[in-house]
Each structure stands twice: as structure tokens, then as C-alpha cells.
Amino acid sequence: MLGPAEKNASKKGFTLVEIMISLAILGILAAISIPNYVKFKGKAECASMLTTLKYLMDGEDFYLLENGGFFAVNIPSGTAMDVPELAYSFSAGHKNRYRIRVINNNRRNRYAIVVFCDFDSDGDGRNDRFRAITNIVNGEVRKNRVIVKTR
């Protein structure tokens, strides 16, 4: 027959109550961390898009200085594309679509870069959209690198 010390030594494992408490604690941690992860992921995607937008604006400025006008191009989301005129390369799988429209004539040079984002940084349920504008009329800069969130 086993003595009292030997009975306690043979019991190994966790009780149902201990397992339920552990699962409750994990559930609470998940409920706190998952929304924060989603929020910070949206902020990171927005920061990445704004960095790309600034590189494109730099490329447009240099293109204007070298060629006397701006460069128009459409970059679909997800496709690898080199844009040597703007000194930028998009990798395969990028998430946003970029559309650059320009006006180049004797009186005016203008570009508008519209970014159709694949994320919702402010939580309103719609994907964001940004616009960057530079407008030069008769050699005078009216708007220079203005970035506006339009949606």
C-alpha cells in the first residue's frame, strides 16, 4: 500500500480549474493585444505609403528640373514596376495604386499624385486615399508638395 507522500508524488498534471484560469488569462491578453496590433499595422502601412509618396514627389521635382515638365504614370497595386524617370522601383506585391496626372504647358506645370490605399488607417471602414499636389503657374509656385487625405 502507498503512503501519503507516495500518493501526492504520483499525481501529475493540471486540474480543470487551473486550465480554465489559464485559458481565461490568454483570452484577456488576446482581447487586448489584437486590436492594438491591427491599429499599429495600419499606422505602419500609412507611414510606408507616405514615404513612397515623398520619393515620388522628389522624383517629379528632379524630372521637372531636367526636362521642364512633370512625368505622368499609373502604377497598379501588386505589380513590380521600374519608373526610371522618377528614380523609383516598385516591388511586386506592393499594396497601393498610384496615379500621377500632370499638366505641362507654357503657362502651367502641375502634378497630382493620387494614392488609392489598401488599408484603413483611421478605422472609418473605407480604404484611405491621399493626394499630393505641386502647382507652378507662370514660374510661381502656388502649391508645393501639399499632401491631403481625401478619404
Can you put this structure into words, describing what you see?
The longest helix has 52 residues, at 16-67. A hairpin with a 3-residue loop joins β4 (97-104) and β5 (108-116). This protein starts with a helix and ends with a strand. By secondary structure, the protein is an alpha+beta fold. The chain has a 5-stranded antiparallel sheet with strand order 1-4-5-6-7, covered by helices on one side. The chain has a two-stranded antiparallel sheet with strand order 2-3. The protein has helices at 4-10, 16-67; strands spanning 73-75, 81-83, 88-90, 97-104, 108-116, 129-137, 140-149. The chain is elongated and about 100 Å long. The chain has one domain (15-149).
The gist of it:
With 151 residues, this protein is of the alpha+beta class. Helix content is 39%, strand content 30%. The radius of gyration is 27 Å and the shape is elongated.
Could you tell me the strand content as a percent range? 25-35%
Order of helices and strands: HHEEEEEEE
Please give the order of strands in the largest beta sheet: 1-4-5-6-7
Structural class: alpha+beta
Alpha carbon gyration radius:
27 Å
In helices, the fraction of residues equals 25-40%
> What ranges have pLDDT less than 50 throughout 5 or more consecutive residues?
none
